[in-house]
Amino acid sequence: EAAVTQSPRNKVAVTGGKVTLSCNQTNNHNNMYWYRQDTGHGLRLIHYSYGAGSTEKGDIPDGYKASRPSQENFSLILELATPSQTSVYFCASGDDHEQYFGPGTRLTVL
Amino acid sequence: AQSVTQPDARVTVSEGASLQLRCKYSYSGTPYLFWYVQYPRQGLQLLLKYYSGDPVVQGVNGFEAEFSKSNSSFHLRKASVHWSDSAVYFCVLSLSSGSWQLIFGSGTQLTVMP
After folding, report:
1. Quick one: how far is CA B111 from the chain centroid?
2. DSSP of A61-77, one letter per residue?
3. Is the pLDDT confidence value at B110 over 70?
4. Which structural domain, as residue segments, surrounds residue A73?
5. Which residues contact A20 (CB under 8 A, 6 or more apart)?
6. CATH code, domain with A69
């Protein structure tokens, strides 16, 4: 049983539209993370959270918001999607140096 | 600033051959180092980790890595590769304080030829 799940797994959005990516973890970890992966780069941190109600900016937060309504759930929100946000997005959870990753969401913004 | 460099974007080896994937890091604090593997269209899976102690650490599926503080390196090795090892391998640095943020290398695409 997967401990970190993401939905949707694939998403096509239009420029200017709102997109919400969801992540759920059953590890009971306090910390959760959102990354994006682009060709030629490793994963880059967008937002993270220390627990319910908290969100922090990562290295590339511009154009993204995050929401952590509960210990288990962490969402990434693109209020006005742009083609440059076409990417694969990974969620992770972890309480120390080791993080556990979800399967990823492939987002295409047309 | 902290960083991770994987100098080889692509590596091709024959099945049964030995393998070394290179990784160099830059960090003034105590490094916590990982190798993750990503199979096509999947998430990242942990291969092995180094926190302290013996500089050679063993991982899953016959992989091992050697930490060198003097060289700021954490190279991944395998004695005999299998076609199923074809994947992208990421060297990752975790910072020793704060949010436990991970710093990723750009990855090495490994192709194992039958």
Report:
1. 15
2. -TT-EEE--SSSEEEEE
3. yes
4. 4-109
5. A75, A76, A77, A78
6. 2.60.40.10
Residues 56-85 of B with CB under 8 A from A: none
Q: What is the DSSP letter of A85?
A: G
Distance CA A91, CA A6 (A): 7
Euclidean distance between CA atoms B54 and B36, whole angstroms: 20
The more confident residue out of A97 and B61 is B61
State whether residue A62 sits within 8 Å of chain B by CB. no
Nearest CA in chain B to A104: B43
Q: Using CA atoms, how far apart are residues B106 and B92, in angstroms rounded to an integer?
A: 9
Which residues constitute the domain of residue B79? Answer: 3-113
Note the pLDDT tens digit of each residue in B6-49.
Answer: 999 999 999 999 999 999 999 988 899 999 999 988 889 999 99
Which candidate from B49, B101, B106 shows the least CB-CB separation from A41? B106
Counted domains in chain B: 1
When divided into structural domains, chain A yields a total of 1
First and final C-alpha spacing in chain A:
34
Q: Å from A1 to nearest chain B CA? A: 15
Amino acid at B57: V
Taking the alpha carbons at both ends of chain B, their separation in whole angstroms is 41
Look up the CATH number of the domain holding residue B63.
2.60.40.10
Q: Do A48 and B105 touch (CB under 8 A)?
A: no
